[in-house]
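[job 0417] fold request received: Major facilitator superfamily domain-containing protein 12-like
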Amino acid sequence: MTDAVQSFETSQHTLLLSTRLAYSVGHVLNDLCASMWFTYMLVYLHYVLEFDNNFAGVLLLIGQAADALATPFVGFESDRIDNFWLCRYGRKKTWHLLGTICVLISFPFLFNQCLGCSSSHQTAQVIYYAAFIIVFQFGWASVQISHLSLIPDLTPVSSERVELNSLRYAFTVASNVCVYGITWFELGVGGTDKDQHLTRSDASVFR
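[job 0417] inference complete; emitting structure tokens
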């Protein structure tokens, strides 16, 4: 009897291929940015911007603290039900859109030299980058939480939920490989010169 019910549910709730593909790429921007953030941000701050170790570490700490605060806030707010006009687009999709915009407008500034303050003291530059980091981490958390919480809304079938998670993870892996491959190509990693290292002249590569 249980197998018959599950079979009936599956036949009634089969997601379209376009829906599955659309969902699977809904977190790609976050994945690309996360790969850059966790792998190359500290390298960029230390070698390219020539930040002191303490300042570079503080910026990463600010980012993780902002993410820790934003994640439960977004999770709570995305489950609320109200009549706000923008939420007619869908509460979770609205948070996804808001997060995407925040990531798009903030992340490019993290891998750019401080606009108008590149010659200022590092303390001033830390404040500059911290502002964009907070916006980026808020946007990143908004996309991540809202994207994951869409799965139960898309389908009640457990096998389809597993498939959506698998597709999402597959694109996460592809995004990481893409970032590492492009960075390897642009920076020429693997050279034989042991004295070769990143400098301010490599800022354009990261940008």
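[job 0417] notes: The CA atoms of residues 78 and 90 lie 10 Å apart. The chain has a mean pLDDT of 85.
[job 0417] exit 0
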